[in-house]
Amino acid sequence: MAVDEKVNTPLLDELEKGPWPSFVKEIKKAQSVGPMATDLLGQLELSYEDKIGHWKHGGIVGVLGYGGGVIGRYSDVPDKFPHVAHFHTLRVNMPSGWFYSTEALRTLCDIWDRHGSGLTNMHGSTGDIIFLGTRTEELEPCFAELTQAGFDLGGSGSCVRTPSACVGPARCEWACYDTLKMCYEITMAYQDELHRPPFPYKFKFKFSGCPNDCVASIARADLSVIGTWKDEIQQDDEAVRQYAAEGLDIQRDVVERCPTRCMSWDGEKLTIENRECVRCMHCINVMPKALSPGKERGATLLIGAKAPIVQGALLSSVLIPFVPEDELLETIKELTDRVWDFWDEYGMNRERVGELIQRVGMANFLDAIGLDPTPEMITAPRDNPYIFFREEEGEEEESEA
Amino acid sequence: MAEKPKRITDIGPPHYQKFLPPIIKENYGKWKYHERLGPGVMVHVSEAGAKCYTVRCGSPRLLSTKTIRFLAELADKYCGGYLRFTSRNNVEFLMDSPDNIEALKKDLADAGFPVGGTNNAISNIVHTQGWVHCHSSATDASGIVKCVMDALYERFTHEDLPAKLRIALACCLNMCGAVHCSDIAILGVHRRPPRILHESLRKVCEIPTLIASCPTGAIRPKTIDGQQTVEVVEEQCMYCGNCYTVCPAMPLNDPENDGLSIWVGGKVSNARSEPKFSKLAIPYLPNNPPRWPEVVQAVTKIVEVYAANARKYERMGEWIERIGWPRFFELTGIEFTRYHIDDFKHAGLTYHRSAHIRM
User: Fold this and answer.
1) What pTM did the predictor assign?
2) ipTM
């Protein structure tokens, strides 16, 4: 393919300087794949001059039978940069934990070199492999090759977004359940909801193996699954002494950093009052050779996180304090079905589950999904006396809102 | 004519087990502990005594297929043909022996990939698309990330901060990423109400949906020349851009007024203190490509003040909570303004409701 590489980009060239790897160099490397990268450089240089993006609003494109997975994008200066007149993105569902064989990576590269710009994000914010920039007529052939190779598209729009998971038991001793398996099983269970948007807005699952929450599930997932344990922290006293001998100030850096002050150190032995431990992970993080999560492992389920749009950002809050690992998959599915039933019925356009809960109140939400209230769900009981008492309190009859 | 292959759909991602290297597969779920071996290098040890050595390097996230092929070559050379990416766009090479660590590090260094991002270092910045691919961005993303990481490079390749430090960038309030719970968040902001393109609005937007989209009720129906359209009560607009998302005829992008804001003290981890949102530090910095010196300077300053003052294991937000916000503004030299005082839904919760004041 003939490539015009003579694009003048003095502003972008400034971003080839400096020690951190340069995305401008990456775009330039993709010029050998086809002419899209060259026109992308040209249009991006124009944005750097004008201080404004040059992509038009949206555009509904996709592959046959799917309502998501492709982000339509058109240039607003197609006459100047005809090769990025269309610059659609495909979201390709990544494997759990972002592990790849080099063979799979090369297959993905081959497919994308044939059908797109040769530019990717490894990975997008939600976790997908992002194929960045192609034409409408390339979408279907690209999708065909992807599925032949065993890959499928991820989610976009008002659907189940591509679930993601931390590295989990693949390479972490703190994984309190199999995050990779759970992520895979949930992704497979909800293929229809992932590819064909059925909801008021997006719904995200994120699976973190421990309270360190390496996939930010508490900040970003409508259903946050965070690994935890029920019994006592596993403790190797000899290894604790070893850390002390190597210079760790256990009193200052472990005991006094504990949020519930549930431990004490006498210079020989670390004593943990496990009943008081909130499973924050600090002591385990500091002494991974000496301490580890207990043996009775599972997860806390939390609901409702989101970024600011529309009614403000929310963190997820506790729904079920502890689900044992062997009950986790079924519990998540059952709970999800009940949450979706209620959200389908009462959610407004572009209202995330967390915002719906804010609007109707957690107590009403719990009624709707059939969960009993527990004190773990709140930081404190209400401090205002405006209680909506029910007339039929104590009787079988339900009060209809 | 050859028969067309059957169309395949709904197969989901490939099963992850296909992509696990032998050292991972054999010790799956059996890891006992790990140790740091230096910035970007760690070893995980299994119950059976097997060891998995990890070398982590930063990447610009926006990768050409050429670079992916290069990374694959390294994984073939040193890691038996497997690699992984992290949740913050780093690349991890996994090995069952330490023999090749130095050779791999050298190959990465020669190719310009920094090794680091572990423990008490700044990890890679998670970020959005910006002018490379987004229609609603108030700024570029990759460019600012590049400039900030150039300035903080040594903080990625060294583990010498009081605790880990997570920076994220989103190019508008949609925040495609966990920007709102980062130690430092760089957020693109619009500062003027949307322009209303009345002509196209009639053709491309559903007016009731558009009116309902506004979280402050600032959009009202209006008739102009007998045609239905909308008006914006400008003093009620907080430039969230939700109207633009549902209606292309309400663009907010504005080269003169768009810019960056800086937020600090958020975290997602439960370690020690509970997860928390990032709070506003600087309401507005100008959009100044190609090197965004104002943003780079502001972020660098906050990092340096934090590094010099926080105690060991204190994340940015934990440090600020200990010393108090007045001291944070004093130490960083950042001006405190009316914009720092919340006036949205839960505003009252951030008013200081006590007489606990450091004089």
Assistant:
1) 0.96
2) 0.96
